[in-house]
Amino acid sequence: xxxxxxxxxxxxxxxCRSQIADGFLRAIGGEKYEVKSAGLEAHGLNPRAVLVMRxxxxxxxxxxxxxxxxxxxxxxxxxxxxxxxxxxxxxxxxNPNVIKWHWGFDDPAKATGTEDxxxxxxxDVRDAISSRIELFVQQGQ
Length: 141
Prior knowledge:
Shape: globular
Radius of gyration: 14 Å
Oligomer: single chain
Order of helices and strands: EHEHHEHEH
Mean pLDDT: 93
Number of strands: 4
Number of helices: 5
Strand content: 5-15%
Structural class: alpha/beta
């Protein structure tokens, strides 16, 4: 582990929202933070998340979908859940110095409609996460 603050993004399946957050923080604040993401389960990287991040100029295609590691969870500076299910079912953090936050975003993988409508849901969530990451970095959390 580096001397940088570790930010651990958590979601249910580590396929969309946590991967998008991971990609943005690496791109926007990677010089300031060590970044990892995981899920309660590993659902695999969602191809639509890869596409909308590529549209934003960020390649997450090499990311892996991982299950929460209790050691990383308790070594993190920040644990940030991105969905209610992960927030409610996050493993117990035993380290009292870990700062845990919940940033809730809709699950774009549950979007319905035409392919364009679904992709627009992915873009909306991507843009909302990007804004929240920019604020996090600006505030120097």
